[in-house]
Amino acid sequence: MSQRAVSVIVPCRNERDHIEAFCRSVAAQTIPPGWTLEVLIADGLSDDGTRERLAAWCSGDARFVMIDNPGRIVSCGLNRCIEQARGEFIVRLDVHTVYASDYIAQCLATWQATKADNVGGPWRAEGVAGSQGTVQRAIAAAFQSRWVAGGALSRDLAYEGEVDTVYLGSWPRHTFVRFGGFDETLVRNQDDEHNLRIHRGGGRIWQSARIRSTYHPRASIKDVFRQYRQYGYWKPFVMKKHGQAAALRHLIPGLFVGSLLALLALFIVLSLWPGQRGQSAALIVAVLLAVQGLLYVGAAGVISVLIARQQGLDLLPHLPRVIAAYHFGYGLGSLRGWWDALVRGRPDPAFGRLTRGA
């Protein structure tokens, strides 16, 4: 009986401390009978020793192949892998995620059962145990909360069914023939854009709770803010390209932060306006600004308590700052992205620097 091939595609850059453990985990995957595995890893010209370690691994396991990714960003790396992939089914993996031993097998099974154009599992975040990982655990707990994530089904660990986007993803080859590859102008959100293209073209995306993995998020609040500022920044370029948002939740942080900034600017202008009328108007705006701010602080506090009661009270001191980093990072990034997308007409290269590896 002839063997069918499944291709794993992986973008990476400067992952010296993680690449070998990742390769071991992929090599240990349980592949269904009748299928063979190839693993294509696109390295974005790493300069920290990743290339040497990866090359050594590839020389000892013929299933693994290192590909150069001179574009250095995720979308370019994925496309270089897809171009060389021989499999009829393609599975994307990332270095900073830990996978169940049957991850690839479950992707195949879900695709065979649903015939969807993209299948994947829920996005499960987890921080390291111990006191030193408290902040990262808080970041993971907030990430998983539907209140922080805007109700995204991709964070629902039990959901089974069609979704607008899915974590990582796996595709029959014909998906890329029909809908094309990843947009190489996007440093972030290239997966959301590709999924939106699938939806607009009449395709289907399916999430299965049986496809299990664990993502390790950034370990500092500052890094989360920078990461989500990038996510927010690139989202308007996706919306401009397609003339629509993939989901309403993508607009809310920008609208919220924009309204705060607008009220603050209006307050400053009215405060400088001569006469009693200007001062009275400034007072009204100040009250509106304070009410909106206090409502957000109160809501963040309530959500923090609800999360801490489930995930550990030691997280409570960190959660309000973590939640604010997610929302304000994304919101500020969105506002800057809209300016560059609509006014400047091009992205700022400063937002092309990745905040961690690939």
State the helical fraction. 40-55%
Strand order of the largest sheet: 3-2-1-4-8
Distance between the termini: 38 Å
Radius of gyration: 22 Å
SSE-based structural type: alpha/beta
Instruction: List the uncertain runs.
Output: none
Quaternary organisation of the protein chains: single chain
For the residues shown, what is the average pLDDT? 91
What is the β-strand count?
10
Broad shape: elongated
Largest sheet: 5 strands, mixed
Number of helices: 11
Instruction: Please trace the helix and strand order, writing H or E for each element.
Output: EHEHEHEEHEHEEHHEEHHHH
- The percent range for strand residues is 5-15%
Short description:
This protein has 358 residues and is α/β, with parallel strands linked by helices.
List the topology elements:
Blueprint: E1 4-12, H1 19-27, E2 35-43, H2 50-60, E3 64-68, H3 74-84, E4 89-92, E5 97-99, H4 103-114, E6 118-120, H5 134-144, E7 161-162, E8 170-172, H6 173-179, H7 190-200, E9 205-207, E10 213-215, H8 221-242, H9 252-271, H10 276-311, H11 319-344
Parallel strand pairs: 1-2, 1-4, 2-3, 6-9
Antiparallel strand pairs: 4-8, 5-10, 7-9
Helix pairs in contact: 5-11, 8-11, 9-10, 9-11, 10-11
